[in-house]
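Appendix B. Extra example for self-study. Work through it before the problem class; the solution is given directly after the inputs so you can check yourself.
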Amino acid sequence: MMSSQLRSVIKHVCLIALSLLMIYPLIWLTVSSFKPNATIFSDLSIFTTDLTLDNYTHGWTSQQLPFSRFLMNSAILSLGAILGNLVSCSLAAYAFARLRFAGRNLYFAVMLGTIMLPFHVVLVPQFIIFRELGWLETFLPLVVPKFLALDSFFVFLMVQFIRGLPREVFEAARIDGAGHVRIYAGITLPLMVPALATTTIFTFIWTWGDFFGPLIYLRTRENFTVSVALKGFIDAQSSSNYGAMFAMSVVSLIPLFVAFLVGQRWLVKGIATTGIK
Amino acid sequence: MSSIGELRQLARQRKRGGKARNPDNLAGHLFLLPWFIGVLVFTIGPMIASLLLSFTDYNLLQPPTWAGLDNIVRMMEDERLLNSLRVTLVYVLVSVPLQLALALAVALLLDRGMRGLAFYRSIFYLPSLLGGSVAISILWRQVFGKEGIVNAFLALFGIEGPGWISHPDYALITIIILHVWTFGSPMIIFLAGLRQIPEMYYEAAQVDGAGKARRFFSITFPLLTPIIFFNLVLQIIFAFQSFTQAYIVSGGTGGPSDSTMFFTLYLYQQAFTELEMGYASAMAWFLLLIIAGFTAFNFWLSKFWVFYEEDSGAPPRRQRRERQGAAA
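Solution. Structure tokens for the complete assembly:
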């Protein structure tokens, strides 16, 4: 019989090997972004002392407008989406979790059902609506829906969270004569900060990484988000400036990485309770 | 608890037909007002509109003209569409089971309270957060390029790798691997599920002399099946809608020779390159029906392998009772 210590060593060796395999492409990307363009593919090693910042200075301006412009666009879009989701999803979640009204179960089922609806089914009419409204080339098509509680995942997440709060708190508030607005804003919101944090971080990561939405609604360069701007590098790959492409890829991933470091706790809790990706 | 579990419960409640009084009618509708507007204007309205557009010719510039079943006939004869369907099916049916199997295997390795647990969990989870971004797809193009690190690794064993991205036989594989690489999020869900299995089940089994394999197949796996099922349903739904990876890896073309032409990519091209809005709407509904069909099939199949504790006559878990109390 194998000793449990040996078994544990084998397990850790496997897990470390898998970790390395998982993380290696990211390390290679980061190291390559500091290598002179000529050596990126001639020397694939990640151990090198021949490092330079050229790719970053070069990449920053290689898409006609400075990359800060695209970062700013992505940041504005993300902020708008976060604000919208926090307000609208918490309002809807409060209604579903704490209020009794006609049709609640039906609406709740519809809300859950939309999680599974492929957005392609509404894509063309939505595009037509936004076009009629004159909202193409603005951030509105990507932000306004967030103020209408359409990200059902977060509504569901918040409903689950509110249901888990002690009922006594709400009953006491009712007895004190607090209305729903006060119970929502004064009691529920402060208590559901963890759910709001999860929503914030997921909304940020998804909005920052979103490609399809910006691809169809933001087609002029001044409006490009980081995702769409990065696409520019593969469109013009004849120039094959891999270093610059890698450098700006790293730049685009840094905010996601920071969100991951800061918010890991809430992210893990969030997916464990709702099963979001 | 999962959204699917919620739906099941709602269905059960409806059957019971409890007649509740509704003291918060006005407040409830006011708090839900944004959502009502959103669902009507941006979900239900557009769904009806796109269903109607499916039977028209519409290029955004002239008003739509009625085309009857033309779009449907055209879909059935469109070789590129049928090919994109095949590519998508291969992608979904290979990448989702692989990803979930790896997620489960790793979750099982990560024992409660083991050394380095938080570290491993972070490392495995990170790719899931980054995997959908354009930057990672760009990276993938290089990792699997003719001179990329995959081929450099294969060269160590004297194997000369192909240009993965530029070869029609291999391009799809790279996107499947990208999907498997993001196994971290289902792994987290499995970990949460594993932690909910009461330790006493294992203790009892051990007393009865059950071995490791026996304990897995008699306790762990059956109790985990609802979570596996939930992941399977959702991951299949999401995988059908994958877009960014195929777009970026193929440079927007779905190539080489349409080998990475996902259904969604073809739909995008029809709608926004060819301006075939009617045809694209028909495709979208076709996609919806396929996904609905797969989901229904999954639910049907679940009767044969998913184990619900309540079915076995065991007392419901405390948590479930509490939740029902809160919902009532």
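Self-check: The longest helix of chain B spans residues 79-109. If your reasoning did not lead you there, revisit section 3.
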